[in-house]
Amino acid sequence: MQMNAHLSTAAAVFALATMAQAERGSDGQANILYWQAPSIMNPYLSGGTKDLEAASLVIEPLARYDQGGNLQPWLAEAIPTVGNGGVSDDLKTITWVLKEGLLWSDGSPVTSEDVKFTWEYCAADGGGCAQREKYNDVTAVDTPDDRTVVISFGVPKPFPYGPFVGGQAPVIQKAQFADCLGPKAPECTEANFNPVGTGPFVVSDFRPNDVIQLEANPNYRDPAKPAFASVILKGGGDAMAAGRAVLETGEFDYAWNLQLAPDVLANMAAAGKGQVVSTFGTLVERIMINFTNPDPALGDERGTRAHPHPILTDKAVRQALSMAIDRELLTEIGYGDAGRATCNVLPAPEIYASTANDACKVQDIAGANALLDSAGWVKGGDGIRAKDGVRLSLLFQTSTNAVRQDFQALIKQWWSEIGIETELRNIDASVFFGGDPGSPDTFQKFFADVEMYANNFDGTDPESYMANWACDQAPSPENQWQGNNMGRFCSEEYDALIAEFSKTADIEDRARIAKAMNDMLMQEYVILPLVDRGRVSAHSNALGGVVLNIWDSELWNAADWYRVN
User: Fold this and answer.
1) Which domains does the chain have, with CATH numbers?
2) Which residue of 303, 316, 323, 488 pairs with 368 in a disulfide if CB–CB is 3.0 to 4.6 A?
3) Which residues in the chain show pLDDT less than 50?
């Protein structure tokens, strides 16, 4: 497989980012705004980006992706390849070697046993690991010595960089999490809120859905980093307030996910206190379809495959929902140049982007009405369709955000034009994207008919991401409502493509399979993609070293941030 481009060294980035740093903690406090407030510091118990990125300040992987999508060694000495002997010729093992002298923030040594335990933690029965797809096909993790980790796969893995790679799959400390396996995982509040880590910062105070206070890790492997003695990561509010706090008042240093109308963002930037940073990656705003029945009357079986959805299992309805949407208009009003209408859930890298679904960019109200007519959904006197006594009425949920509420209002209107009644619901983002298995309002629980959010993946290879829609990835009571197949879609044909993708080496063949997977999801209307969103954040002019990274956590190089005098 042609992977040299993914394994290059971005020396210039690190040279730029490390300039002006002389002494750990010399630059005071950095103030960061994630208006979708983190609710947990354990990425294995949450699929929410806000939680994954906050945790990345503290816990780290063996390797991660730089701003160009290139793999960089992080806790490991080097990236294993077939060429350097780190990946076996049969592609069934990969051997990582930890950097010498690594310490946890509590001063204890990081060993290969911690890495092995991390896999055991994610693989434990009943634990509901939110990142389980990163460990697909792993059959064993061996530790021949304290610094060597040998991962064995049950099949040849041309791309063996899923386990322990990227901000979504970090290494956790065995000593801290040893009693948190399986169903006990959500109960380990101290560990989940205050993980011992190897990153540049450690948690000093964590208030879920509010604020995280962090201090420089005294045992961080580079004695000159981080430049900041402390970090405040504040949650709450909205994207508007976050943008103002950085771009207009300079009160904060960094604001994440400025999901704002383009004219609003431009007006803020004109104040001159900071700068907007943006680039395109794989972030797609989409509507997810629920294939299960979310009716509360079903009790504990609500939202499970035991009860198929009474409306949305009809492909004609799913297709009509898509046809009625004007994606170009949504993009224009919601994102401007920071968005592109898309008909794919996998829009990048370019080699993986399908052109087979582009017709969805043209709204077709008349066609959607004709499709529902032919499918037997008949309009009543109030204009709402019904079939076999089932009224075509849907609950449409998303997180609280001005752009998303504008989208909801427009989509509700378009769906009304094809005879669909829509109830709108928005939920505080900290709750919606949280991982609390006891909450009925998370996007994992999906106790609605359709829901809207954006998602993306680490790195430039989509193998793990496209495995999100495997049958066994569906959130359910048995896995603590974790997993990334929110709609509970299940197809033996799709699962077979996942297996084929995992053992295919040639890059052109991998692209063919990835496109086939994307096209199946699109043409079965499992997902209704709307906008290929550029990642948009902002930092103050007083914050240096920021390198926007769309292939990993945005906070990936926070150790290199510094105060500009």
Assistant:
1) 4-273+541-563 (3.40.190.10), 280-457+521-534 (3.10.105.10)
2) 323
3) 1-21
